[in-house]
Specification:
The complex is a heterodimer. By secondary structure, chain A is of the alpha+beta class. Chain A is 44% helix and 11% strand. The two termini of chain A are 29 Å apart. About 28% of the residues of chain A have low confidence. Chain B is of the alpha+beta class. In chain B, the strands form two sheets. In chain B, strands 1, 2, 3, 4 and 5 form a five-stranded antiparallel β-sheet that branches. Chain B is elongated. In chain B, a hairpin with a 2-residue loop joins strand 2 and strand 3. The chains are: A alpha+beta, B alpha+beta. At the A-B interface, helix 1, strand 1, helix 2, strand 2 and helix 3 of A face helix 1, strand 5, helix 2, strand 6 and helix 5 of B. Strand 1 of chain A pairs parallel with strand 9 of chain B, so a sheet runs across the interface.
Chain lengths: 71, 218
């Protein structure tokens, strides 16, 4: 992985550090395969989970921090 | 009884991977599905979700094009998976070609909602005026997002947008970025985030190309 400049590190949220971002990407996106394929998640309705994940992300995504003025 | 937990579609020369229980299931042509043998569907906790994401990222070391499959997709066996995807093979191949060599960045836009102003001095009925005002407000949201992210346009191959109904989160924008542009994209994005504006930005990435997988393969 290429080393990032400090300004990039400051503003680009690390993908593996944000559970909310992870939930939104992994549970809400990606190829959906239908047909004789079970969309099972330990017996829980995946549609319910997806809605919960979207609601959670929509409600709780933090506002972006106030940008620092560079001198 | 064991199941196959399918987590990505990949294209490229057949590669034998033995990494943390990964099984490559050949589908058609040079397209395969990366799967894991499990005894039960996965539980969506933080550990499993991170492991799912990391497994997809690990495939980048071996394949130029990787399409994430939604978490929790399990099949009885390889034959079931082939049968489910057979009719979509051309679309899968086309999608893999589109995302070849790319990663995804996600930009969240935070802004106040533009008000839908309804003119009282109009011959049209109240319903028509209301809908037109809503349409104009939507157009404003789309136009200001385009303007705010304009510096990134030359560096990305594709863009997908989602508008949200819960303020202050206004929109989510997903960019498909060729790997050779990632450094410049990150610098341009950092400059954008750091620029004071009525539309605040929060960005993450690079991700696997989650948002550029088709909604459904049947």
């Amino acid at each position: 992985m290429t080393r990032r400049d400090p300004p990039v590190m400051d503003v680009l949220e690390q993908a593996d550090h944000s559970l909310l971002e992870l939930v939104d990407h992994v549970l809400n996106k990606g190829v959906v395969i239908t047909g004789d394929v079970t969309l099972g998640v330990a017996g829980v309705d995946l549609i319910y989970l997806r809605l919960s994940a979207v609601l959670c992300a929509a409600d709780r995504v933090l506002e972006a921090p106030v940008p620092r003025r560079s001198r | 009884m064991t199941l196959l937990d399918a987590y990505a579609l990949v294209s490229g020369p057949a590669v034998r991977i033995r990494h943390d229980g990964v099984e490559l299931v050949p589908l058609f042509d040079d397209i395969a599905a990366a799967c894991r043998i499990v005894e039960a569907p996965p539980v969506p906790d933080a550990v499993s979700l991170r492991a799912h994401d990391q497994s997809i990222r690990a495939l980048d070391e071996h394949f130029a094009a990787v399409l994430p499959i939604r978490f929790g997709t399990v099949v009885p066996d390889a034959e079931s998976l082939r049968a489910a995807l057979w009719s979509s093979r051309d679309r899968i191949a086309e999608t893999l070609a589109r995302v070849d060599g790319c990663v995804q960045f996600t930009v969240r836009l935070f802004a106040a909602r533009p008000e839908a102003s309804v003119s009282a001095h109009d011959d049209r009925g109240p319903g028509a005026r209301y809908l037109e005002a809503r349409r104009d407000a939507l157009a404003t949201r789309l136009a200001r997002a385009t303007h705010r992210l304009a510096p990134l346009e030359p560096l990305r191959r594709e863009e997908r947008r989602e508008l949200h109904d819960v303020p202050p989160l206004d929109a989510s924008v997903y960019h498909l970025v060729p790997r050779e542009h990632v450094a410049r994209y990150e610098s341009a994005l950092a400059a954008l985030v750091d620029t004071p504006d009525a539309i605040r930005l929060r960005a993450s990435g690079p991700w696997p190309v989650y948002a550029f997988a088709p909604r459904e393969f049947a």
